[in-house]
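The material for today's practical consists of a large collection of protein records. Backbone structure tokens are a discrete shorthand for how the chain folds in space. An example says more than a description, so a record of this kind follows:
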Amino acid sequence: MNSLWFFEDVNLFAILCPHKMKDYKSGHEFNAYAKNDYIYFEEDIADKVYLVNSGKVKIGYVTEDGDEIIMAILSKGEIFGEKAILGQESRNEFAQALENGTSVCPITIPEMMTLLREHKEFSLKIYKFIGFRFKKLERRLQLLLFKDTKTRLKEFINELKEDYGYENQVTNDVVIRHPYTQKELATLIGTSRPTVNVLLNELQNEGYLSFDRKEIIVKNKNRSA
């Protein structure tokens, strides 16, 4: 399991969050948001990186036709707005709170650069992390454009295995305890919640998986499919 709190054994939140650091803690506050509040919009100045402290944050953009494309739904411990580290001057996506009580830790770019300089090993890992996320988002957009809905769902389940999965030592099935609702799963693969429910039931009837509200179990014979 690759926990989202840890990337290659580095705790992003503990290293990056100024609340964890004596020199920054006194003058630093979490930003709180209600459900559907925007943290930033497309075209806003990219002057901060953020860490999710609680709740969920949706990252996406709006096409020229007015369609909303969701790239990620992030939960506690995850980083967003990271393209500002690479010199992005304005946002090309929006960030929106999905739950009441969502709070994020904002880190200014000067603070971020200081932290990266002070943690050289971590700086290499955070850049690798950014590259990994770009590849992941690129693959998801390719799936949205070129694959049918069932294939998109199976591919996304494979991503969930990497992020949230662990092996049942008795059955050798992969158990995925994830934070997404069916509506959020549907949003991430570009379909409707009823369609996701139908497809999950199809995959269950085929013996590919079993599922409930917060858990998907990929059967051993299909674990690498």
